[in-house]
Design goal:
This is Peptidase S9. By secondary structure, this protein is mainly β. The protein is built from 13 helices and 57 strands.
Length: 928
């Protein structure tokens, strides 16, 4: 069996605050092993932003079991300003202020909760406003939320929670007077501190680019009437937009803040169907117009303006898009509860399974159909309908033509295919006239940026299609004769997916599409031949476009664009600038590390923030004038230097099918090839592309933590697995087992101390492996499918979908129905070979699993129990496919560590493994 090791070198940064001189005979302190409690102390950078002028970088450090910290970095002075218990920050557009929330200490709140303090008495958040010019900090207590303008500056708006004493007069004094809380809106000038205060505010909104703020208030005494108000804070005058009692929602400005729209219910009766209408306010108006009332105009009887649909102005402000809601289905309130039959009626004629309908019930109740108001002429048009639920208007809402799409005729096929098709409609935005196109999109349809084309990737044909609105013509715009634009490594019994697209050139002149390695410029009109922009295939390097401007709609044809590049063989990554006009490629950096795929660029300056990582190096923030020689500005986890860590290598071997495979091999620090180490094998499908990914300690929900186990002296092997359709279990065996035996032949693995761990699809494969081999001393299989026959007809409770598509076409890879390939379902189901298992198995399967029915874990466990084989099952009550609650994740990691330590390190036998944890002890005695 041929195999070899490829060693990858890592550079580890060290940070010195001073020079420490030690005697020559002094020995370095021994590195510590990671413990379970350490897993929740590691910081992540949960958010980071750069100011528009590029001077300031703000980011938040947060661990799973602690308070967040926000750090404001001054790129000009190379200084940090640190704020404990702070997050949810925003930077003012002029880069002169940062605002954030300071939370009460987590330990303090927990202590108050233990003392049963009323939740209304718990401390609230404090708004902090930091002046970046002089570092003065203003604190405002009991703030619920705040907003800063996106594209204008000088102001901040926030809600505080105020208390108003109850009426305590003799006639109305209750036994115990209570306070009534309400919300106060404060609009504050950041420089002068001048404030505008409005009481009893229900909601508020800021315009994106123009200085405008709007709010809804209940009113205050006789001085302020209830209704909707608008303020230009620079002008300082509050304008009533609409005065009157009612419920007003969805305040929405146009881009410049000159127009305002909202929905409102003016009915003061207790009518069950609330008659929301559409209101519009704009230049020249003294009050908002009620432009559409329930059941009038373009609406059928019983329809209303949707209170749930998003309002949206077109970019040029000429159109206002809103939603229409059909009459709701109301229960008969005259019936008592016991008089109402509670029955589910399932019908094979339903487009969606009843379970899907249940999962999507809230969506169905909020379903709205697109309509539009011409804000200049006042003309209304209905664009969507019951038959056309989805409408997409291109050119940021400016286009005269919209794409209507409907998958309603094809809903059933989702159950066994997993995907769906769409009927397409061409809709006139001005009149609402709909024309069904004589074609079906066998993929998700989209509108090009300037709305000249409808386009999609056609899954069954594995090609890109474009429908020209100018000549009503459908064209196939890619061909395998030019390049392969579909997934070359697809090993599932389904149509291969695309490699997606980079974007469109200006004026829809061309679309930039990816193949496995390169970027192609494709003319959707068919007038010009395809043009390959990069030359990656020859060297096995893939290029992908990096969009530095999050608001960018299209790419200028002569632009200089940033590309992310990745080497398939070495797994190295890099950045390169490409000049689209000349085709020149300028590689900025490339190396044995993983670079940030979404670097940040300042809006108004050539300043960048990105990360660089490998197994040993945390992705700290790097700041600079380019994307090569920046300065590392964060040090999220300095404690890492105290712990034993490890290194990762790319390992290759030959499978039983004769294919050379790759995998990740992680070794402890001070690895000695003459020693024998315990091995844990962990896998899913293919993972080797993540060679340079940093794996920070965490209490993971489903897998072992590599840093933790390597710190404790384990070696970890993560093999890639290619699959043969119809034989997923055998494919796993043919890839994994020779990889493990190849490592044993190297001489540094203890063949009697090998464990295996995986979850979901990984859990299934492990269940299969232990029926075929005794190579593993112990195994942990999370949420495993062990009986493909019973699972095939089951439900994915998280989505309500049938599980059929998964076995016929996607991950389970059987390739057909139970009736076509009954033997494949039988042969790939571990449950029928449980009697062959000699390996102890730890199963984790939760009773609210919405992906894999938890009765699969029960089938596995009860079969092992019936055959008197060693098995344990962990069921975290109320948890889904994996435990989410921190206490449960820590518990899972602790038990799994004890389990592997017992079998692979001769660790102590914990009580829960020896005698279980009886129901009477649940939640009281953990049995650790």
């Amino acid at each position: 069996m041929s195999h070899y090791l490829r060693l990858c070198t890592f550079l580890v940064p060290f940070f010195f605050s001073g020079l420490l001189i030690t005697p020559a005979f002094a020995q370095p302190a021994a590195k510590k092993q990671l413990e379970i409690e350490d897993l929740t102390q590691w910081n992540n950078i949960t958010s980071n932003r750069i100011s528009a002028d590029g001077r300031w970088v703000v980011y938040t450090l947060d661990s799973e079991d602690g308070d967040p910290t926000t750090i404001v970095y001054d790129g000009q002075k190379n200084e940090d300003h640190t704020f404990e218990r702070a997050d949810d920050f925003q930077i003012s557009y002029d880069g002169q202020f940062v605002a954030f929330l300071i939370h009460p200490a987590e330990d303090t709140v927990k202590d108050m909760r233990r003392r049963k303090v009323d939740k209304n008495a718990l401390p609230g958040d404090t708004l902090a406003i930091l002046s970046l010019t002089d570092q003065q900090l203003t604190r405002i207590p009991e703030v619920k939320n705040f907003k800063m303008p996106e594209k204008w500056d000088g102001w901040i708006a926030y809600l505080t929670v105020e208390s108003m004493p109850a009426d305590t007069s003799e006639a109305k004094r209750p036994k115990k007077a209570k306070k009534k809380n309400y919300e106060r809106l404060v609009i504050r000038n950041l420089k002068s501190g001048r404030e505008t205060i409005v009481d009893k505010v229900e909601s508020y909104e800021l315009a994106e680019k123009g200085s405008a703020i709007a709010w809804v208030t209940e009113g205050q005494d006789s001085t302020v009437a209830p209704g909707v108000y608008r303020l230009d804070p620079n002008a300082g005058k509050i304008q009533p937009v609409y005065n009157g009692k009612g419920k007003f929602k969805n305040l929405t400005f146009d881009e410049m803040g000159s127009q305002l729209a909202f929905v409102g219910d003016l009915d003061t009766t207790k009518v069950r169907v609330r008659p929301f209408g559409l209101f519009h306010y704009g230049p020249g108006k003294t009050t908002a117009d009620l432009v559409l009332e329930s059941g009038t105009g373009i609406m059928e009887s019983g329809w209303t303006v949707s209170e749930h649909a998003r309002l949206r102005f077109s970019e040029n402000g000429g159109k206002l898009f809103f939603g229409l809601a059909p009459p709701p289905i109301l229960p008969d309130t005259s019936l008592l509860e016991e008089e109402i039959p509670q029955v589910e009626v399932w019908s094979t004629g339903d487009g969606r399974l009843y379970t899907q309908q249940e999962v999507q019930l809230n969506r169905d109740k909020r379903q709205a159909y697109t309509a539009v108001l011409d804000t200049r002429s006042g003309q209304l048009a209905k664009l969507g309908s019951l038959e056309i639920p989805d409408v997409d208007v291109g050119d940021e809402g400016n286009a005269a033509v919209a794409l209507g799409s409907s998958d309603l005729p094809y809903e059933k096929m989702v159950s066994w295919v997993g995907d769906t098709y769409y009927d397409l409609y061409r809709i006139d935005v001005n009149t609402g006239r709909q024309r069904k196109l004589d074609l079906v999109a066998k993929g998700n349809p989209n509108v090009s940026p300037r709305a000249k084309y409808f386009y999609w990737y056609s899954d069954p044909d594995s090609v890109w299609m474009a429908y020209s609105l100018a000549d009503d013509r459908l064209r196939q715009i890619t061909s395998s004769e030019v390049s392969i634009f579909y997934d070359e490594l697809n090993d599932r019994p389904m149509h291969p997916s695309s490699y997606r697209l980079a974007g469109w050139l200006a004026d829809d002149a061309a679309v930039l599409l990816y193949d496995r390695y390169d970027i192609w410029q494709i003319d959707p009109s068919g007038s010009r031949a395809p043009k390959r922009l990069t030359r990656g295939r020859e060297n096995g390097i893939s290029y992908r476009y990096v969009r530095l401007d999050p608001e960018q709609r299209f790419i200028e044809p002569n632009a200089k664009i940033l590309l992310y590049q990745f080497d398939d063989a070495t797994k190295e990554s890099g950045y390169a600038w490409m000049d689209l006009a000349s085709g020149k490629l300028d590689v900025i950096q490339q190396g044995a590390y993983s670079l940030d795929r979404r670097p940040l660029k300042a809006e108004k300056a050539e300043k960048y923030v990105y990360t660089k990582e490998d197994f040993r190096t945390f992705p700290d923030l790097i700041y600079g004038s380019g994307l090569k020689d920046g300065r590392t500005i964060s040090n999220a986890n300095p404690q890492q230097s105290e712990f034993s860590w490890g290194n990762v290598e790319l390992y290759e071997w030959t499978s039983l099918d004769g294919e050379v495979l790759q995998g990740l091999l992680v070794k402890p620090d001070n690895f000695d090839p003459n020693k024998e180490y315990p091995l844990i094998v962990n896998f899913y499908e293919r993972s080797s592309d993540g060679l340079y990914s940093h794996r920070a300690p965490q209490a993971h929900r489903s897998t072992i933590n590599y840093s933790y186990y390597v710190s404790r002296g384990y070696v970890i092997f993560n093999p890639d697995i290619p699959y043969r359709i119809g034989y997923p279990g055998e494919s796993c065996y043919n890839a994994v087992i020779p990889g493990v035996t190849s490592l044993i032949d190297e001489g540094f693995i203890d063949r009697d101390r090998i464990g295996v761990q995986g979850h979901s699809w990984g859990g299934y494969q492990i269940a299969y492996l232990v029926t075929k081999t005794d190579l593993f001393r112990c195994a942990e299989a999370g949420a495993p499918v062990v009986n493909m026959i019973s699972a095939y007809g089951g439900i994915r409770w998280g989505s309500g979908m049938s599980r059929m598509f998964q076995y016929e076409h996607t991950q389970s890879r059987i390739g057909g129905t139970l009736w076509e390939y009954p033997l494949r379902y039988l042969e790939n189901s571990p449950i029928f070979s449980v009697d062959k298992i000699n390996t102890p198995v730890l199963i984790m399967h939760n009773d609210e699993d919405g992906a894999v029915p938890w009765y699969q874990g029960i089938e596995f466990f009860t079969a092992m129990r019936r055959l008197d084989k060693k098995a344990w099952m962990l069921n975290y009550n109320g948890e889904p496919h994996w435990p989410l609650k921190l206490a449960n994740r820590k518990d899972f990691q602790k038990r799994m560590s004890q389990y592997f330590d017992y079998y692979l390190l001769d660790g102590p036998l914990p009580s829960w493994m020896e005698r279980g944890v009886p129901a009477i002890e649940k939640g009281i005695l953990q049995g650790y």
